[in-house]
Design goal:
6 helices; 2 strands
Length: 187
Amino acid sequence: MIASRLLVLSATVATLMSACARYAPQPITPDKTNESLAVPPAAELSRDAAHLAHRRLPAVELDLTKPLTPDAAAVIAVLVHPQLRAVRTQRGLAQAQVIQAGLLPNPQATGALDQPITGDTEAAHIGWSMGLSWEVTGFIAQGAKQRSADATYQAIDLAIAWQEWQVAIGAKLAAMRLVSLTNEVAL
């Protein structure tokens, strides 16, 4: 009776422990790469420009039916620049590493049930064992790992902001030159 309850309990524990996240491979294909680097539709671009959260670039209301202002040209350049879009994925990876650095190892539960199957089985007892273990050495370096991951994230974030600023200033300068040359041609 006790053995059957333990068997059910250990099966339940094993089932619950196996209910963790699942891995699904997502291979990089040329189609996925082209899709992720394609210029977004005008509506999506306008939405992203209106909700831009950048240290140096103001959010702008885009009306693509009118001529672009230098600020709008800078925001569009930052949003659609393929190299910047690729570099921004590093920010997501660094965020994941910050989360990973804060995780502790999972506790592990083990159980075994030993039932004799040969010889005199009527007088034999069913053997069982249960155990719980937790790797506590992860506590030792957790603070250093988390500080390192935070510093890496901040460094990547600042490097991306610097690259975005350079692209924005280049686009803004090109737009101002275009306006200046257009005015010069009109004169």
